[in-house]
Amino acid sequence: MTGGDPNRVIEAVWRIEAGRVIAGLARLVGDVGLAEELAQDALVIALEQWPQSGVPDNPGAWLMLTAKHRAIDLLRRRSRYEQKLEEVGRDQERRHADVDAEAALDDPFGDDVLRLLFTACHPILSTEGRLALTLRLLGGLSTEEIARAFLVPEPTVGQRIFRAKRTLSEKQIKIELPPPAEIPARLASVLEVIYLIFNEGYAATAGTDWMRPSLCEDALRLGRILVGLMPKETEVHGLVSLMELQMSRIAARTGPDGEPVLLLDQDRGRWDRLLIRRGLAALDRAESLGTLGPYGLQAALAACHARALAPEETDWERMAALYLVLGHVAPSPVVELNRAVAVSMAYGPARGLEIVEGLRAEKALRDYPQLPAVRGDLLARLGRTAEAGKEFERAAELTRNERERTLFRRRADALQPDK
């Protein structure tokens, strides 16, 4: 690989290769924190050498080889090299007669990465810890980048990562795939983490940006890796389909000044048709593997929008039915709120408002800005403009995203009698 700014190349290579390097090291040294330190050592060496010597033709392999040598040196210094060599040999003797520790790191890419992904997303960790550790170990993001993405102080992210590593060490969590009986529950945790990362990028909960597309890209990359590692899991394909289809709209979700553009107002000519094709293909694969779960059902909902060349062509009746099924599979007030929107588009705002009124007492939606926003929209469509304006004002008070707040206030102002 030649040409370009070496530091930018190193950053790009690290983002792609970090997970594989750390995963391979983790299996050898048996500790996630130590594996990351060794991988970081290799990165530092690259930052020192590549600007002078040039970027290697295969930079990922260079990082892996350098990190492997550091790991083996460390094991020697700790007088555990022979022990580790014997352990690796016993694990591999059925397939290979003569294996050393360095060669053991060359196991198939997927095995190591999958082990690391399940470890970083272990349910014993807090949600915040799982998110931060996954982005750090498998996303190749620095603590600063994670902090900036989630709008929290850098020391806070550092503490989350530190506590997550310490918990894994103290609880003696092995870097391995869970037993077959535990995989469904553990896989659910992995999928949850990936989608939480994606959602924070797709609709930022706070700050000045409506979206943070780089987080969506990180999540989608993790999802695609997972598909390659677990190709027979329906929900893995479902999640990737959902992310592909939602991400296809990103270019159309903001106006010239970064202001939000709502779904029905978007220029669908700006939707990414390649991502849509990929998303629909992933949905087909999910459906061919079995009954759709929560992610697959959400992907089917997103597909209704993707297949409609214009808002009026959307199959709202199908969407209302899909939300009903999703509500049974994964009950949630938010799902019911979304069903209200689909019902209102299929059968009229009055029908949708009936559902919304039943949700106003839900504690989970008490501070959720989308509840008054949806109610405001339905009231406006019914001609109850004064009430609608108050609902949008309430939504503006609740949201922590500045772009969304501006949108809600504009909706409220537009409903004032003198406007």
UniProtKB/TrEMBL annotation:
Keyword terms, alphabetized: Sigma factor, Transcription, Transcription regulation
Record GO terms (molecular function): DNA binding; sigma factor activity
DUF6596 domain location: 186-286
Segments forming domain RNA polymerase sigma-70 region: 20-80
Keyword Transcription regulation assigned: yes
The keyword Transcription regulation belongs to this UniProt entry's keyword annotation: yes
Stated family: Belongs to the sigma-70 factor family. ECF subfamily.
Protein's name according to its UniProt entry: RNA polymerase sigma factor
Organism whose genome encodes this protein: Acrocarpospora corrugata
